[in-house]
Write a structure and sequence with these properties.
- The chain is an alpha/beta fold and 329 residues long.
- It is 36% helix and 24% strand.
- It is built from 14 helices and 12 strands.
- The strands form 2 sheets. Strands 1, 2, 3, 4, 7, 8, 9, 10, 11 and 12 form a 10-stranded mixed β-sheet that branches.
- Helix 2 crosses helix 4 and helix 4 packs parallel to helix 6.
Length: 329
């Protein structure tokens, strides 16, 4: 499967379009440019993974309803059987069902013909693979691995206090339906590589209607950009988006590791519909004291368990003047 990823890198295409004016027409042009429309020329089962990291719409934090609805409609009208879904909040702070209701997903699905999927309630199976010389395992919905033909990642353009950026690859972490997946961040990069391969995550559309600047992934400064960025290659997409935001992708650990794990060839090029260098969005990342402390947990599963899932959790949060987002019993 990793061979498919390597071959894709040779023909990566990126399309930047408007997410406001003529949005549906722009999305259709993007489908054509990145080869998605050709993929839909025969019957396909497609899973769309938006970013519902909050149980109600928040600009720059969650995928906009308008981008999601138009994407689902175009896929359905192209003859695909379309599934769209998310799992519970990563720290158990809300359920996928609550997010679906708050994001109006059921009504969106009624209008577009898509089928909502609560990944936290689906039949799960354990899948393993060797990534970067080490075996890793994930639990994923059997539907996504065994029945869906390919996955489209539909995240938001945002900075992330732990990973610098959170884009199409990081968005796939929500396909791993365990409420405490933050206890497994040490192997995040390898598991993302495995998940993207198992789910055949071949296309991505980054919603940049609003981008989240300065702090993320939940809180920050929402900046109106009015764009989306689409590609037939998630890693090329995230690399391009990082540059548009003003970051050096070679200095972003998970992008650097994913590039290494997929053994992308030297000189891989990106064909775009516009001059990507013309976009200079100049995003910044400002970590605070709590972020610095959390960064240690992000790279140590044992420390993360003590801080986020132990009898010491509440006292630690109290000491920092915070309340746990998780619904502690």
């Amino acid at each position: 499967m990793l061979e498919e990823v390597r071959n894709q890198a040779l023909a990566a295409k990126v399309y930047i379009g408007s997410s406001t004016a003529n949005r549906e027409r722009e999305l259709q042009a993007a489908f054509d440019f990145i080869g998605l429309q050709e993929e839909l020329s025969s019957p396909r089962k497609v899973f769309v993974k938006p970013n519902f990291t909050f149980p109600r719409p928040v600009s720059g934090v969650t995928t906009s309803r308008e981008m999601l609805e138009d994407t689902l409609r175009l896929l359905f009208e192209s003859g695909a059987e379309v599934f769209v879904g998310e799992s519970n909040g990563g720290y158990g702070s809300f359920t996928a069902a609550e997010a679906f209701a708050g994001q109006d997903l059921f009504e969106i699905c009624r209008r577009t013909g898509a089928q909502p999927v609560d990944l936290s309630k689906e039949e799960l199976r354990e899948y393993s693979g060797v990534v970067g010389g080490r075996e890793v395992s994930v639990h994923l919905a059997r539907l996504l691995v065994d029945e869906v033909d390919f996955t489209i990642s539909l995240p938001v353009l945002k900075v992330h206090a732990m990973t610098t950026v959170s884009l199409s690859m990081k968005n796939l972490w929500g396909c791993y339906p365990t409420d405490l997946r933050l206890l497994e961040h040490k192997e995040l990069d390898r598991k993302l590589a495995l998940i993207s391969t198992l789910l055949r995550a071949r296309f991505g559309i980054v919603d940049a209607t609003y981008g989240l600047d300065k702090h993320g992934p939940m809180e920050g400064e929402a900046r109106f950009l009015g764009k989306f960025i689409a590609s037939n290659d998630l890693l090329a997409l995230d690399t391009a988006c990082a540059r548009l935001m003003g970051f050096d992708p070679d200095k972003i650990l998970h992008l650097r590791n994913l590039t290494r794990f997929t053994k992308r060839p030297e000189g891989s090029s990106i064909t775009a519909n516009v001059d990507l260098s013309a976009y200079r969005w100049a995003f910044t990342l400002r970590r605070d004291l709590i972020d610095s402390l959390s960064f240690s947990c992000f790279h140590s599963d044992a420390l993360a368990k003590i801080v986020f899932n132990s009898p010491l959790t509440r006292p630690i949060y109290t000491l920092l003047g915070k309340k746990p987002r998780r619904r502690l019993v």
